[in-house]
Design a protein that fits this description.
Number of strands: 10
Oligomer: single chain
Number of helices: 4
Order of helices and strands: HEEHEEEHEEEEEH
Largest sheet: 6 strands, mixed
Radius of gyration: 17 Å
Structural class: alpha+beta
Distance between the termini: 47 Å
């Protein structure tokens, strides 16, 4: 059997598709390792999880970090995912002049139901290779928060699963103590 040829894109080529009207701003896709990958539709549990996370961080980090919801992260010339939530180094322009890059990320969070295995395997390894210091995956179906820390080229060296009753603080904000039950809802 012959495999179909895959087309690999750079970020520039990806945006050229947008400029040409082939892709649209509301298309649910992201660029991962040169491939334009579809993202699953956002169901109510996923949307609620993202909204809950945003509400936990918005007021608490004003002036200390930029809270970015479902916006692009430029990892490389061939990868620009759209994580559910990013805590970014504070910038006065709120990243209007360019998309954030790995060095800007303080915490990255993915809310996962149907995308759980892709977020755990492919995306977490991608984030680790690019030095994102901390990733949380909110596992909606398993009612757990998976925490990934200490990135390396092979993946995260510190991976733990937290449940209701546990507490967590982002590495860069140890004073911000969150109940896992508040994150999970």
């Amino acid at each position: 059997m012959i495999e179909p040829l895959k087309k690999f894109y750079t970020v520039t080529g990806y945006y050229a598709l947008l400029d040409a009207g082939i892709l649209h701003e509301d298309d649910r896709v992201e660029l991962i390792e040169g491939e334009i990958r579809p993202m699953p539709p956002i169901g109510s549990p996923h949307a609620g999880g993202v909204n809950r996370l945003a509400s936990l961080f918005f007021g608490k980090l004003t002036g200390r970090a930029v809270v970015s919801v479902q916006n692009p992260l430029r990892l490389s010339e061939i990868s620009e995912p759209e994580p559910d939530l990013l805590l970014l180094r504070f910038r006065e322009d709120f990243y209007a002049s360019r998309h954030p890059q790995p060095g800007d990320v303080l915490l990255l969070i993915e809310v996962a139901d149907s995308s759980l295995e892709f977020d755990r395997r492919t995306k977490s390894r991608l984030y680790a290779r690019h030095g994102v210091p901390e990733v949380w995956v909110q596992n909606l179906e398993g009612a757990a928060l998976e925490v990934y820390r200490d990135p390396s080229p092979q993946g995260y060296r510190d991976v733990r699963t937290l449940r209701r009753g546990d507490r967590i603080s982002p590495l860069t904000f140890p004073d911000l103590v969150l109940e896992v039950s508040a994150i999970l809802g």
